[in-house]
Q: What sequence folds into this?
C-alpha cells in the first residue's frame, strides 16, 4: 500500500491521453475508463487507458467485473490500475458513481487519481450525430472494431 501523504510526479503517454478523449467523443453519453501504469518511488507513468463502459447510471456488477478484469490484465503487463477517467453527459465533477469507482481503485493504490473529461458547451456537434428528423442513426461502420 502507498503512503497517503506521498506526492507523485505523473507522466502521461500520448496513447493514455488521447483514448479518453476519443471514448468521450464516440459516445455522447457518460463514459468511464481506467488508467494503467507503473509506479516508482516518486513517479507514476500512465502508460495505457482502457475504456470500460458508456451510458451507465450506477455502479453495477458489470463495472465491478470490468475493474477486476482490467486489474488482471494490468498485472499480466507488469502494471497496476492507477486511476480513472470519466466524461459525463451532463453535470460536472465525478458525481456519486465516479467517487465510488475512485474509492474502489484507491483501496488498492492510495495514489490513484481521476481525470474528468469535459466537453465545453457546443464543442460536440450533436446535430451531426442525429439523422433526419432528429432520429439518431446507428453509425458503427464509422469506427470499425478490429480484434
A:
Amino acid at each position: 500500500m502507498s503512503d497517503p501523504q506521498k506526492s507523485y510526479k505523473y507522466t502521461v503517454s500520448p496513447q493514455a491521453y488521447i483514448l479518453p478523449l476519443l471514448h468521450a467523443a464516440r459516445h455522447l453519453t457518460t463514459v468511464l475508463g481506467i488508467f494503467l501504469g507503473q509506479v516508482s518511488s516518486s513517479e507514476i507513468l500512465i502508460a495505457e487507458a482502457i475504456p470500460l463502459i458508456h451510458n451507465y447510471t450506477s455502479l453495477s456488477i458489470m463495472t465491478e467485473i470490468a475493474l477486476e478484469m482490467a486489474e488482471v490484465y494490468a498485472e499480466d503487463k507488469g502494471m497496476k490500475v492507477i486511476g480513472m477517467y470519466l466524461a459525463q453527459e451532463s453535470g460536472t465533477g465525478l458525481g456519486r458513481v465516479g467517487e465510488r469507482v475512485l474509492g474502489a481503485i484507491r483501496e488498492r493504490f492510495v495514489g490513484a487519481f481521476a481525470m474528468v473529461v469535459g466537453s465545453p458547451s457546443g464543442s460536440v456537434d450533436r446535430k451531426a450525430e442525429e439523422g433526419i428528423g432528429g432520429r439518431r442513426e446507428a453509425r458503427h461502420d464509422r469506427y470499425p472494431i478490429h480484434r
